[in-house]
Write a structure and sequence with these properties.
- Strands 9, 10, 11, 14, 15 and 16 form a 6-stranded antiparallel sheet that branches. The protein has a 4-stranded mixed sheet with strand order 3-2-1-4, with helices on both faces.
- It is α+β, with helices and mostly antiparallel strands.
- Strand 2 and strand 3 form a beta hairpin.
- Helix 7 crosses helix 9.
- The chain has 11 helices and 16 strands.
- It comes from Microcoleus anatoxicus PTRS2.
- Belongs to the D-alanine--D-alanine ligase family.
- It holds the Pfam family Dala_Dala_lig_C.
């Protein structure tokens, strides 16, 4: 078997925050999947000014030392490198859409879902509409803009329509709290999704990987919530900024999340809904979905997160490990899926 020339596409065309988030996951992946007998790793790093660099590592010093270049220059480098497959590690909207499309144009295959699907699911309302049409239960919701009043009764949840990691998300108990929550959400998006609050039973994530054309559901991950003190997950439950300015993951704390026993009765109900979501959206290689479980045990689709960095701490990596699949095996199988 020949050595695969693997490009990790890292950084952000939008902000330092997304650059740091991308580096956090990509560095974990680089450290835990390196195997010189199988792969030759390369890094392309995008900065918010949209310049490209090809650093030797993701250390800040290596990135700073790498020569910045235009898209035209980067395309020439990519051609010279003769990359076999790309791993998308960018989490900003352009990174998940435009930059994936670039690799389609360059005829360089990549792992994961295509740009047009990433653009669809980046819009929470559109993703909900697609899965709802396939028979998946979704909370009642509507889109509002500045000055709009929702017709949905409170309590409700406000979400910037195209942001991730619960940025700008708020639980609104009554009409008096609505205006402030709306203004906060509007700082992250021009449109806000207002959803009817689903009473808390549980909240879980379901991952699916494609093996030999078959959809394989992975063990569920559950998140610690409390009906009185923490009715929804927030940004602080997922990420924190350290004193050095770098990001770290908080959601991997065992007090905040854990793997659900496969024999749990909720598992098969969620699996059935997740399969419908995967097929309706037309997912490729893998998928990941958040579900709210109401007190009666009914799963409600919240959103799709169709990316995986193959970091040891990535949700899909954690789920695969719980199913008995090592990160090395998971990573190699997904690379082969790209061809």
């Amino acid at each position: 078997m020949s050595v695969l020339r693997v490009l990790h596409l890292v950084g952000s065309a939008v902000s330092d925050f997304y650059c740091n988030l991308s580096r956090l996951y990509a560095q974990d992946c680089l450290e835990n999947t390196a195997n010189s007998a199988l792969y030759e790793f390369h890094i392309a790093y995008i900065s918010p000014d949209r310049t490209w660099r090809f650093p030797t590592s993701l250390a800040q010093s290596a990135i700073a030392a790498a020569h910045p270049m235009s898209l035209a220059g980067a395309v020439q480098v990519l051609s010279d490198l003769q990359i076999d497959v790309m791993i998308p590690q960018m989490f900003c909207i352009p990174g998940m859409t435009q930059y994936r499309s670039l690799f389609d144009l360059l005829n360089i295959p990549y792992v994961g879902n295509p740009a047009e699907l990433m653009a669809l699911v980046a819009d929470k309302a559109k993703a909900k509409a697609v899965v709802a049409a396939a028979g998946v239960s979704v909370p009642l919701g509507e889109i509002v803009r500045g000055g709009d009043r929702p017709s949905i009764d409170f309590p409700a949840v406000l979400k910037p329509v195209n942001s991730d990691n619960s940025i700008g998300v708020a639980f609104v108990k009554n009409a008096a709290d609505y205006d402030a929550a709306l203004q906060t959400a509007l700082t992250h998006s021009d449109e806000v999704l207002v959803e009817k609050f689903i009473e808390l039973g549980r909240e879980v994530r379901c991952g699916i990987i494609v093996k030999a054309g078959e959809l394989v559901c992975l063990p569920l991950e559950e998140y610690a919530l409390d009906a009185d003190t923490k009715p929804i997950r927030s940004y602080a439950d997922k990420l924190k900024q350290n004193d050095d300015g770098n990001l770290s993951l908080t959601s991997k704390d065992s007090t905040k999340s854990w793997i659900v026993d496969i024999s749990d009765p909720i598992t098969e109900r969620v699996y059935a809904m997740a399969r419908k979501c995967h097929i309706a959206l037309g997912c490729r290689d893998y998928s990941l979905f958040d579900f709210r479980i109401d007190p009666q045990g009914q799963p409600w689709f919240l959103e799709a997160g169709l990316y995986c960095s193959f970091a040891q701490k990535s949700v899909l990596s954690t789920m695969a490990k719980a199913s008995g699949t090592s990160l090395d095996t998971f990573f190699e199988s997904m690379l082969q899926n790209a061809f």
